[in-house]
Amino acid sequence: MTISPCRSSVFLDYKDLHQLLLAVQEKCYENHSRQMVSISIPIDFIDPLVVLDKYSQTNTLNFYFENKSKGEAIAAIDAVSKLEITSKHRFSQTEEFIKDCLQNVINFGNTNQPFAGSHFFCSFGFFDQHYQLDYPFPSATIFLPKLQVAVKNSACCLVVNYLIHSRVNIHTILRELQTKIKNLQSLANNSPNIEISAAKFTKNQINNSATFKHSVLSALEKIESNHLTKIVLADALDVRSCKSFNLFKSLNNLRQLHPNCYIFSSSNGQGKNFIGASPERLISIQNQQLITDALAGSAPRGKTPTEDATNANNLVNSSKEKHEHNLVIDFITQRLSQLGLFPQVLAPRLRQLSNIQHLWTPITAVVPPNIHPLKIVAQLHPTPAVAGAARDIACAEIRRYESFERGLYAAPLGWVDAKGNCEFIVGIRSALIDGDRARLYAGAGIVAGSDPDKEFAEVQLKLQALLKALV
Ligand SMILES: C=C(O[C@H]1C=CC=C(C(=O)O)[C@@H]1O)C(=O)O
């Protein structure tokens, strides 16, 4: 077979790959087995959002994740292996699935470059079971993509995963791979396909302001009677546009309007997408170094530098906001300690976003190799930043107060690799997109001293910022 050189052929030894694939197939014949091969190739820079735009299809699982502050973005297209879970134990089942898959992976290429090797993309529901029976996502979706394009600063890495067995044609695989690389590299100077015109839309708040404030007052009574100390109440906004939402335009807007947030999108393979811009990291692990965020306590950004500084000052000095925040620190440190980790609480700081600012305390720990990232996700979710304290009581009350399914809102979403590196964020400030309809979600933490008007205003501020990016 002749393989003509393409721009990236210098980075990929087709001859070696050919031999490896033939040897793998030979083994598959002998053992009547299947073998996953993960091929990592450095390629010229392409925007992963462009890859999502060009390659994602409504009937496949896709995932997008961007962390501008770390210069990272990743697009994962279609699944070569997947698991959907609708029952309890979603985190432990996910861990098992990932471990099982990894036992059957052979790597080809340099796995030391950023984002090389197998990555598993996961999105979870807030609760382990949805009460809305027709909610379009299961309570966990995990997949190993067919195609993954990731950037770290200006370095770009392509990963393709193939399932090799006795019936595949190795020559066809190699030819397809070469075409894929060529087509991808032709996207180098593209930007997402975005039309400029704004669409007309109608809005429908799930709760009117009186209902939300009434829930806050009722929650405050429960807090006063020591039933719980904190509860996070969310609201949803339904939007109907005169035409279908453009996923790429929305994601592009989100990354421009919220450069300090994690931008994400997860599809269900049936045309629905869950997207958003979240400031909250659940866990990130790189070379066994874990970092997590206690993020709770909020104030709007000021319209002038003076007003902004006053708001920030009031926020850091408010005992109510500090109490709301400290509950999250205490919970995270306790839960990490229960896993045998030694959490270090870093100095508190402000997380200033385009529309809002938060009290923020990063917490770090070293993770021994025997603790899988999913164990930590299971241990931390949901923190009091999105549920409350005590957690089980708060979760039960959330189900009573909120008249809509949280679904993927405020739940962990991210990726894990073969080395135990991972990045999971909390899917707040998010929207479920379904054609010309979108449901937007945001919430606010209620503690003793919360003012129903202010909490309602905070939720509206968050929802409006999201709406601006979608329409
Ligand atoms: C639950 C949300 O925000 C949480 C994260 C940061 C600050 C929060 C607050 O101050 O209430 C919330 O705890 C949301 O935006 O939907």
Automatic annotation (TrEMBL):
Task: State a single Gene Ontology molecular function.
Answer: isochorismate synthase activity
Q: Where is the Chorismate-utilising enzyme C-terminal domain?
A: 210-462
Does the keyword section mention Cytoplasm? no
Name this protein carries in UniProt: isochorismate synthase
Reactions catalysed? chorismate = isochorismate
* Gene3D superfamilies, per database record: Anthranilate synthase (3.60.120.10)
Q: Output the Pfam families linked to this UniProt entry.
A: Chorismate_bind
Record-linked InterPro entries: ADC_synthase, Chorismate_C, IsoChor_synthase
The entry's family comment says: Belongs to the isochorismate synthase family.
Can you name the source organism?
Answer: Okeanomitos corallinicola TIOX110
Alphabetically list the UniProt keywords: Isomerase
What EC number(s) is this enzyme filed under?
Answer: 5.4.4.2
Q: Which residues form a coiled coil?
A: none
